[in-house]
Amino acid sequence: EKYCRYHHDHGHDTEECRQLKNQIEDLIRKGHLRKYVDREAPQGKREQGREVAPRQQEEQQQQQSRVPHSKRLRTGGDEEVVTFSEADYEGIRLPHDDPVVVTLLVELFTMKRILIDSGSSADILKHEFDQLRIPTDQLKPVKTPLVGFTGETIHPLGSINLSVVEGTAPRQTQVEMTFLVVDTPSPYNAIVGRPGLNLLEA
Prior knowledge:
The structure is a single chain. The protein has about 200 residues and is an alpha+beta fold. Among the domains are: about 35 residues, no CATH class; about 100 residues, Cathepsin D, subunit A, domain 1, CATH 2.40.70.10. About 20% of the residues lie in helices and about 25% in strands. The strands form three sheets. The chain has a six-stranded mixed beta barrel. This is Reverse transcriptase domain-containing protein. It comes from Cephalotus follicularis (Albany pitcher plant).
């Protein structure tokens, strides 16, 4: 029922959007929205409103979230801003269109060759990943097939919830992801799509 016009997505209203509020506050601090700022309003009142809104938003997101925050492990204090500098391009030929491939801790096993794919509407796990040894009877049935870019359909063997840890101590996050398990050749052990990226807040 809720829709955010800023994100063009469901889950929260535009008026409750924390990112939009932060973006507006940033523009105000930079002086771009002077004609819209009420200069008569007491400074304390504006600051108080600034404090309350994000807290209310966080409580609403906790209630709406598919994964309770008690299952999340976030250490290291404030969220870290990830940026890229010229040093990150060292040894890389530009321009490039290399895929983003990461390593994550899945059910306490180090899983390499995980493709980050924001175009995927599902998180997918290759059945042949030997370290996990998932018995087929632990999979929940899935009726909807996966449809690829060329229209080919793949019927998942089922779905399973697995603990995923991203990052390294002291800055890491733990979430429970629902993977569709497929028995098909792939150079990747897993694909983290939009659901997983949203859970990881990445």
